[in-house]
Amino acid sequence: MNELVIFLCKCLTVGLAVQVFFMLVFLWYLQSYNRTLLPDEELPKTAVILCLRGADPFLSDCLKALLNQNYPEYDLKVVVDRMSDPAWAVATHTVQEHGAANVDISPLRIIRKNCSLKCSCIIQAITELDPSYQAIALVDADTIVHPHWLRELVTPLADPKIGATTGNRWYVPKGNHWGTIVRYMWNISAVVQMYIYGIPWGGTLALKTTVLEQTKLLDHWGKAFCEDTMMGDILGKHKLRIKFVPSLIMLNQEECNLSALKSWMQRQLLFCRLYHHHWLAVVGNAILTILFPTLLSVLFVAAFLTGQWYPAILSFSYYTSYVLSLLLITVFLERAVQLVIRSHHQPHTQLSMTVIFKMLMAIPLTQWVYGLVFLSSLRMSKVKWRGITYKFQSPWKIQLVEYRPYHPSEQPGASNISLN
Questions:
Q1: Closest Cα to residue 382, out of 370, 372, 369, 397?
Q2: What number of H helices and E strands is found in the chain?
Q3: 3-class SS of residue 73
């Protein structure tokens, strides 16, 4: 057992070194990013596309923020699954209350059987645009943007080498459900990896319309399960880059329970497994950060119960040091991102001792949950997303096998719980 414990300790050291390196690269980019914005006369006419199924907890706030952009010429295109959907009433009421004239709300007219419902909505919105639009921006209903969001998203597209721009989500580490804090901890690692591996986030994403035509992206979306993960490979074939904009890290204050978190995490991993060439790197990272520390904790229990004190002490000390190191990484990243969030007057989290202690307790819980979800996602050939069932044989062979309208009874009981 001694040799196995020493081997795992060495692996843990390597895994921690990789995570620290990734963190430093990410922090360097946050600090060094040059935020320059185009003047009004150079900004292209843009269509902002929002796809809805079910009324997300902060949907009204999302819409209000989208209607208050510091941008000269843009239109908001909202595509709702059906007029009977709870999101329809929220969207129409918010727009009427605001008195906005640059909004078009329409139901989804064609439910495609070979892609996700979200891809169907995006395709409908784009194909109905007239040629005057030079850029499109995608946004999710759980994204509450700041006033300069669209300007900061579109500005980098002026560079001909940049095909798309993106931001990312950032959750709050507080709430009444353990799923909330586990999602926060998992997402911190995901945000860093998405930057390192060049994975865009569809909740804040912009492209030039010429790029859509050049890459035939609508054809890909017409047979895909998600709209964002595959874009790095598709744009890369045309020598176009995806630029991550740090100021577009958007705060999400929703909560979730552990059962809903499982489905959400499975989808994120499934998107990456199906559509991203760095999937094996994600697998390697999971082995380093999940499998090895879990095995070390199991060996500690086994050594302690059998009275093998040297491996018990060694495994316990290494595992404890590893968890504390992860907590420090989390705090460093949280403080760095808080500077970004505060610069746009978004709500920020006070890292009290209670919050930090809860984060510490959530680290091993996140490892166990992630490990179980990761294993289950490898065997998935069917997935349910907001009441719709999909089957898939390969990345480009998706089948919508069961559709039904979203019913108000499916809304969570609490007003701040994420829709699954």
A1: 397
A2: 14, 10
A3: coil
Q: How far apart are CA 101 and CA 164, in angstroms?
A: 27
C-beta of residue 406 within 8 angstroms of C-beta of residue 85: yes
Query: Identity (one letter) of the amino acid at 193?
Result: Q
Q: What's the CA gap between 189 and 193, in Å, rounded?
A: 6
Instruction: Give tens-digit pLDDT for 196-252.
Output: 999 999 999 999 999 999 999 999 999 999 999 999 999 999 999 999 999 999 999
Return the bridge partners of 255, or none.
417
**Residues ≥6 apart with Cβ < 8 Å to 4:** 299
Strand partners, 139: 50, 204
Other CB atoms within a 10 A radius of the CB of residue 416 amount to: 14
CA distance 23 to 38: 30
Tell me the angle at which helices 86-98 and 59-66 cross, rounded to the nearest 10 degrees: 40
> What is the H or E stretch that residue 77 is in?
strand 74-80
Determine the residue type at 192. Answer: V
DSSP class of 255: B
- Rounded to whole angstroms, the Cα distance separating 275 from 279 reads 8
What one-character DSSP code corresponds to residue 238?
A: T
Look up tokens 């300790």; give the residue: 9
Backbone angles phi, psi at 287, to 5 degrees: -65, -45
